[in-house]
Amino acid sequence: MRMRVETDAETELRALFLRGLDGDAMAYRAFLLRLGGHLRAFLARRLFGWPDDVEDLVQECLLAMHNHRHTYQPEQPLTAWAHAIARHKLIDLLRSKSVREALHDPLEDEAALFAVSETDAGDARRDLDGLLETLPDKQREPIRCVKLLGLSVAETAQRTGLSESAVKVGIHRGLKALAARVRTVK
Amino acid sequence: MKTDDLVNLLAADTLPVQRRAARRRLALALVAGLPLAAAIMLLDYGVRRDIAQAMLLPMFWMKLLFPALLGAAAFVVLQRLARPGVRVGASWLGIALPVLLLWLMAAMALANAPQETRAALVMGQTWRTCSASIAWISLPLFIATFVALRHLAPTRPALAGACAGAMAGGAGAAVYALHCPELQAPFLAVWYVLGIAIPVLAGALIGPRLLRW
User: What ipTM did this prediction achieve?
Assistant: First the structure.
């Protein structure tokens, strides 16, 4: 039965992701929410000594997957791609705690990622909002409008006086810069 | 920040995504690096004067083909290493095979040569400068490949760095071959391989530092 659930998750998540890559923001948002659930359960099981780190790592993984979504190619199982990134980030974190050998659960099983899901988000400890504040204006303002005020790209453009494409580029570059800042404050 | 807020933010980044980005970026690195490598070769060394006659010799093409094939195989491996969760599998063989084949040819050439000429077959006339020249000509390719890799997502940075060095070194050695006067397999088996090994080693060393993401 478990196998069945995994294959379904792969099919559905992959379909949402591919639609997202084609520019369907609704599908992409749904994909990220579900992926977040899988990441949360997957990482919590492997970080049980550090429950406070789980949500930070979920966010870091989501940010990394988003910023590197161009490295996914449709002929590859999505779980293999997502698992490799989650594993990369998890090892990075454990290495920074220099307790990699304390890892009990083996990390090699790709299918394990989509086998579990946890939708109850804990609190993130890392101050992502604070990091956002350190971005240059052209990136920070579009991000603030979209995130805090929930405005669309068109509304953000009107409000900030930027062109729509400048808003899009600002968000895009801002997210890359945010990931770089997350890396340096760790 | 709540994770749901982050998700909303990520979903708002709707810039189109480049398809087959790994292949494209790495190909772009070759396209950008090769003219620079050629420029170094032309300005610092110059094409060998007898290139027209040399082109009639099979060994001239061997010398060009061996590093070019190695570089092409490194490209194939690298565009896999640059994507998370993609196994490299047997494509490693593509990098190893040209080297093994060259070594085999060199061993046969040495075995068939009289004892007293063997040293000359290995050393040629340019052994002092050959490896360093290949590394120097490869440098723009090496830099361009690392720039490309930093936009991708290698999860094994030392390996990806080494492979970037193999791609740059292979392409660089093929460019150097247009200048190089040597025509013996034993010479190539030592000094060309060493020249390519320099960027490979450099890539393996700096990969873990430069390819963090």
Answer: 0.89
